[in-house]
Amino acid sequence: MSATLQTVADALGVSRSTVSNAYSRPDQLSPALRERILETARELGYSGPNPTARSLRRGRVGAVGVLFTGSLTQAFTDPYAVQFLGGLAQATERRDTGLLLVPLSADDPDGAQRALAEAAVDGFCVYCAPNWQGSLAVINARSLPVVTTENPTEAGAATLVVSIDERGASRTAGEHIVGFGHRRIAVLDTWVTTERRNGPVRLPDPESLPFYISRERICGVRDAVVAAGGSWSDVLVLNARDNTRADGAAAAAHALDRAQRSTAILATTDVLALGVLDAMAARGLRPGHDVSVTGFDDIPDADRSGLTTIHQPSTEKGRIAGELLLDAPEDPALRRKVLPTSLIVRSSTGPAPVGSSS
Amino acid sequence: MSATLQTVADALGVSRSTVSNAYSRPDQLSPALRERILETARELGYSGPNPTARSLRRGRVGAVGVLFTGSLTQAFTDPYAVQFLGGLAQATERRDTGLLLVPLSADDPDGAQRALAEAAVDGFCVYCAPNWQGSLAVINARSLPVVTTENPTEAGAATLVVSIDERGASRTAGEHIVGFGHRRIAVLDTWVTTERRNGPVRLPDPESLPFYISRERICGVRDAVVAAGGSWSDVLVLNARDNTRADGAAAAAHALDRAQRSTAILATTDVLALGVLDAMAARGLRPGHDVSVTGFDDIPDADRSGLTTIHQPSTEKGRIAGELLLDAPEDPALRRKVLPTSLIVRSSTGPAPVGSSS
DNA sequence: TTGAAAGCGTTACCAA
DNA sequence: TTGGTAACGCTTTCAA
After folding, report:
1. A281 in contact with chain B, both atoms CB, cutoff 8 A
2. A63-165+314-339 sits in which CATH class?
């Protein structure tokens, strides 16, 4: 039904190669002939080489796969993730490469594995996917390049990595808080427990957390607390159902409404931290006075809300991930990049309220 | 280098077809043989049929292209867009189909056309793309199914459409506002003018707006104003640089800071409307009292902020778009769906301040 | 239940 | 500058 390269070649009495060249290597034939070919193609309704056939022949697809766990909506709810993706798109676009979204639904592991095995891509970017271990084997079997922003330790030598010092950055926030004299501290994170609920959680040892980013960020806080002479067991751990503002608010309520109210809440993402601010606003509590709050990521809303947070170069992270993927260096040292972070102090943090140290 | 189906076949002394069947049609061979084949494949590092080759042979790619204009980041800044995409993903995932993001950069039209011509997809979804007309020809030339949520009129009979009554819905919001006695009314939208700036704009005839959604939503407001005996020339038109909260706030400033302050601002998206609320908060103005504000879309933040808005079923819209694309009905009547909308009244609207009708 | 053969639509190489 | 030929890796009849 649809016209092929052959159709056009026949119509003009030239060979397939020539028509192919008209599209893919314009310098290989006379401009006049090329124009005639393109013209005839237009008349015949031939819209250029079939992308799939071209990919097969060339051995390059022109797309990279982006893996998510959880729903797409959930992934894009976090501005950090969106910025990262934007950076990734910048890099790939420049190389005429598209982005294929591969959502890995947790309730259908077989489907997820099939999706990975059957995705027509030149490489994978693993992102927003704390529990991608099951997928790893499938991906590696395809011997395609993979870049990740997580699990640098477990990633294996073949994997490309662009990351930040999660633990160190988080510790900076912790030090900022203990430096202000806070002693009734809470940390707020998602998926700290397998139960999906908003509220306090017992977490004897944060090093045992299975998900890399959670583990590192929470341990960073612990390190700061312990270094200041505090004890991890005094830190209240709050779990949010999902990484959303609403769940952040709901979880924070448990720290705000208890008799001995926490004077500082350190959230592991800005989205959660903004939820904390929502919960405080609803109670008439002043950020940086009654309760101090920190986030992580430095999304645009953080600035608007005066949130003290850890800045990470989200867009650049995506861009570098894309460049690494499309142009993987041989040198192992160049296959892993660690990007800088910084503490941005805004109005949501301040000295611990007087008399709160008891 | 990488193992192929042939490699596995040779290793076992069976034919290619049999190995192929082991993967694609398990019922065509004995379980024992199948297991042996899969086992050998694993040993040989063969990770299953090459997706591209399979696509070529089958004539189906297993991906649909999603077109954006503007940057990805910008597109995903609007929760409406994210919800729509989530719905689309739901539908495609169920059919083992991926989503290929195709960002069409405005400053590189040639690159954009190439991206469209070369995208390996089974269909296209056009979305968040007010000015996609240039792409239309390229897409149509490929004779692939296309679904759009915009431009139902210009779309052509072949195009699948899932839309809402933009003008009617917007008119509802307008009627709500004039019903409250407001007469100093402003409308706030993006890209009303080619100049990319925040502020008032002269717009003698909204019917002349080139972008469908802008035109329809603004005309809806005009209809309501005129029906109530008002005049379009009394309506202040504000342009926001981009569809962001910050630009919404900046543009709204012009309506809030003028001598005869607008008593009602109707934004064409919730994101812009939330920006208006930000600008009001900064000035100590009370929504629904000093100034009434409406939005459009009913994103989650709208509820949180008490924003009166038009609800549209964003996720369902995406889901239906996906289903239409993957299973296009022959019957022309079924190829176009119009989804319902409703006015959600919250606290951001109220009676016009006393004495404001002058 | 298994195998042989014929493409799917293109590009790359080499020769003319 | 142009054309012939041989893949790219797979699926799908159809026959055994």
Report:
1. no
2. alpha beta
